[in-house]
Amino acid sequence: MAKVLITIIGTGNPINRSYKPALYKIGDKEYETEFIAKALVQHYQIDKIFMLGTAKSMWEEVYLSFSKEEDQDKMLSRAGKIEEKIKKGGYDKCLIDEGDLKLISNTIEEYLGYQGSKCYLLKYGLNDQEIMENFNVFLEIEKELNDGDEIYLDITHSFRSLAIFQYMMINFAENVSKKDIKIKGIFYGMLDVYGQILKILKKLYYY
Question: Cβ(4)–Cβ(46) under 8 Å?
């Protein structure tokens, strides 16, 4: 049995490709991080992460955030190469390849100290073909799940349509799969109301 976090990464700030650091509160504990995924990892002692993103997602920031590489020049060089591919590519011309995703997956595994994390590319879901390709990605994820796995679903980032699709597919897997898997929580870091509703500014919403 493993605790598995399924999360989608977006594009962040279009100017500097980053998320604002936020103070997420879960129960009586607080976690300050730019990635809600890291707060969930710490609080729930996550074993694996299945990280999803598109051709323009800020994969380089995921690598930098989770990396334990001591050679800073090497780390920044790797991140820079990934960022360059993302900037040169586009919606219909994805330059991120399996080698890049494997590097990030290995980095996440080293951070967690547990094998089995993976990164997946999603299409934007703008037509039937792209929706079907995304459907197949989630079928691949279902194959990676094992009996007894507990699923923690983060729908904070990326397009809302992908978040809804993500939830529908994982709910489908929970109810249809022959494996005994359970959704333990669905999470949304509500940073959109920053500066409007102070009371919920630092809370992490989940169901």
Answer: yes
Q: Any residues with CB less than 8 A from the CB of 105 and at least 6 apart, and which?
A: 51, 117, 118, 119
Neighbouring-strand partners of residue 120: 52
**Cα 164 from Cα 168, distance rounded (Å):** 6
- The structural domains of the chain, with segments of one domain joined by +, span 3-206
* Each residue's pLDDT tens digit, 141-176: 989 999 999 999 988 876 767 777 777 777 777 777
Instruction: Return the structure tokens found at 56.
Output: 């323009």
- In the block, which residue shows the tokens 């109810």? 175
**What is the domain class of 3-206 according to CATH?**
alpha beta
For range 33-38, the mean pLDDT: 89
Minimal CA–CA distance to 64: which of 48, 83, 46, 51?
83
